[in-house]
Amino acid sequence: MVRRALRNDPRKGAVLGFGVAFVVLSAAGLDAASAETLPEALVKAYQANPQLNAERARQRATDENVPQALAGYRPQIMASLSAGLQQVRDLLPGNSVANVTLRPWTIGVTVTQVLFNGFKTANSVRVAEFQVKSGREALRNVGQGVLLDGVTAYMNVLANQALVEAQRANVNFLKETLAITKRRLDAGDVTPTDTAQAEARLSRGLSDLNAAEVAYAISKETYAQVIGQSPGSLIPAETVDRLSPATLAASSTAARSENPAVIAASYDVEVATTTISVAESSLLPQVSVQGGVSRSVESDTTLGSFRTDQASIVGAASIPIYDGGTAASQTRQAKELASQSRMVLEQIRNQARTAVASAWVSNEGTKVALRAAESEVKAAGVALDGVRREAQAGQRTTVDVLNAQQDLINAKTRQIVAQRDRVIASYTLLSAVGRLDVRTLNLNTPDYLPEVHYHQVRDAWHGLRTPDGK
Length: 470
Known about the structure:
- The chain has 470 residues and is an alpha+beta fold.
- The chain folds into two domains: 3-74 and 118-284 and 326-457, Outer membrane efflux proteins (OEP), CATH 1.20.1600; 78-116 and 285-319, Single Sheet (Outer membrane efflux proteins (OEP)).
- The chain has helices at residues 3-8, 12-16, 22-27, 38-48, 50-63, 65-70, 120-186, 192-227, 248-258, 260-280, 326-392, 398-433, 438-441, 450-457; strands spanning 76-83, 86-92, 96-102, 105-116, 286-297, 307-318.
- The strands form two sheets. It has a four-stranded antiparallel β-sheet, with no helix packed on it. The protein has a two-stranded antiparallel sheet with strand order 2-3.
- α5 (50-63) packs parallel to α14 (450-457) and α9 (248-258) runs antiparallel to α11 (326-392).
């Protein structure tokens, strides 16, 4: 029924022949010099993402636990100074009274050195060092999450942009179809039903276009939040399957030794186990030595001495006998926490194994889905061409053409989503294994090394300046 109008319309090829694959977006007049690739976007996220920078600051704070624990090996030096006025009223023989104003002052220095505290200092240093190692893995885990968020944000913008273009082309096609149908209605070739069907499809197309534009706007804001700036022209991204193990078994094995969450949990077990020894130190003897020098000056000339200088060195040992049960309770508590940490480690290992299996299956599934979507788009395009030719021969109605067009739009939408999911799934698998980092991806940015700040502060005996860790 739409034969003559479709055949004679010179714009039908431009209306129907739109492309929505990502590669079309990169070839549709984009300036290659200003276009941004996924690795470039990930570099910006790695350098400026607030969440990642906050985690780096947290790790630098954790580094300070080590010099604080090492302070137990070092002497404690205290200087003291006291001065004041003292009014003295003396009752002398013969009931005479003498008032004297004194101005005494004392200055001194005390040095205390712990010789033995039940190995508390040594074990506290070990705890602090394990905390640092656990924190580094936690930082690496956050870094993986930020990079994966960057990939997701990038691909969402790319996909939603393609969906907007697809829906716009669809609306243009529906507008042309409605205009043609109205002309044919005026000529008496179709009924008002055909016009109503075309109007309904156009309304649906406008609604779908609006939804696509809303999703596109949201994805751009999410991109700005993760990457640090609004997206410009984005270039289609490639998968990173080549960086992941070749089999599911190899991926699971790699995750057990490389996944940062698993490694961090294993260090947490070491922290909890060593904390038991820290708690037990309160049950052992304590030995220290203290030396001091002081000078005390009195201004009362009636005293036998005007100034007193003192120097001393004193050794002290204490053996705990009973503290009300505090140390014993703390030791039992530490043992329970160590048991909990071992259970948490096993739980995280199971979660990592499940995450790898899920990521692997999803990654393989996206390959199938993408191939199916590409085949569907090709078949839907052929079907639309056939329906249009049959409509030109009077064997199809307007609604048949509209349905074929809708099938093609749905197929292209699924293809766009499959292309997005394909890339994200490959990065998700890499993250589950524990290899989603700057070095593996070969990003063009210096890798943040937490060890630098650690060595800057580990043996610092004094100073308030905070190193930047670079």
